Amino acid sequence: MALKCAMLVAGAVLLIGAISEYFVYGKTTWFSILLFPAVAGISSFVFVSFFIQQFIIAKIRLIYKTIRSLKKDSQDLNLNFSRDLLKEVNREVIDWADDQRKEIEVLKEKENFRREFIGNLAHEIKTPIFAIQGYILTLLEGGMNDPRINKKFLEKASRSTDRMVAMIEDLDSISQLESGKLKLYQEEFDVVALAQDIIDSLEMRAKEHNVTLKFNKKYDKPILVHADPNRISQVLSNLLVNSINYAKPEGGETEIRFFDIDEDILIEVADNGIGIDQKDIPRIFERFFRVDKHRSRHTGGSGLGLSICKHIINAHGYTMDVRSTKGIGTTFLFPLKKVG
């Protein structure tokens, strides 16, 4: 810009000099004759160049402001013309396009998750409904008249109904946990005593699968935590039932461990079962996600247990983690607030 102004001033001085020479001396030299069109051409070029530049800058400013206004995290629409404007606009366009690409990828992932969730939900609900339908049709076609058959099929229909009700209740619990509507009733309690009660309640089920439920060591003193005992009981129960269902064919064992870590108590539920593939671990807490679909269909459950566990621990202000090795075993761990 400074160079163009200097060229304009120099051209104007030369042009004035040539005109002055004509009026003073009544004549002009060949140099002056040639100088006049040269100065006029240079001046025209400078003026045209200047206005073209201003036009381009105005258009770039409009593009730049439009891009900046589309970016939600920016309110600064001022341009700094001391920088390379085209380079700046190019960078903004690339950044904006990258943000849009990432947003599209997230939306695609959500859409895929939605489709998979709806498909799994339809399958899980369809299974008990079709079972109930089959039992009722059998009874209507003559089974009702046979006391042995009608009682057996009514009991089966009742179990399928219970499974469907449990699934709906689990979905409702997850929905309330995610929305923050499910209230926690936190209090001080002995988590060791709570875990022992759950182990005792699952003893018969564990024996059927040749699985031993135990602590990693003898805990002589209570371990007090501040949490919702009913919800933590639900978490521990789901984790222990999972360890039973996914034990190796020859059986195994599951340990509950407690570790004192500063202001928290870290709880681990570790088994030596079939384990989880590394590729499946990131999805292990998704609703209805099953590592082994064929095996899990026969173990019962709604497929929502781990998702509920994760949301309950999140509602307490913590997170649940998992580490696992295929063929060796799985460990779920989460902290709770320590008392004292």
Automatic annotation (TrEMBL):
GO cellular component: plasma membrane
Record field: transmembrane: 30-52
Biological source species: Luteibaculum oceani
Matching InterPro entries: BphY/WalK/GraS-like (IPR050351), HATPase_C_sf (IPR036890), HATPase_dom (IPR003594), His_kinase_dom (IPR005467), HisK_dim/P_dom (IPR003661), HisK_dim/P_sf (IPR036097), Sig_transdc_His_kin-like_C (IPR004358)
Domain Histidine kinase: 120-340
One example of a Gene Ontology biological process annotation: cellular response to phosphate starvation
Entry keyword Cytoplasm: no
Pfam families referenced in this protein's UniProt entry, alphabetically: HATPase_c, HisKA
UniProt-listed Enzyme Commission number(s): 2.7.13.3
Protein name from the UniProt record: histidine kinase
Reaction catalysed by this enzyme: ATP + protein L-histidine = ADP + protein N-phospho-L-histidine
Keywords: Kinase, Membrane, Phosphoprotein, Transferase, Transmembrane, Transmembrane helix, Two-component regulatory system
Cleavable signal peptide: none
Gene Ontology MF, one: phosphoprotein phosphatase activity
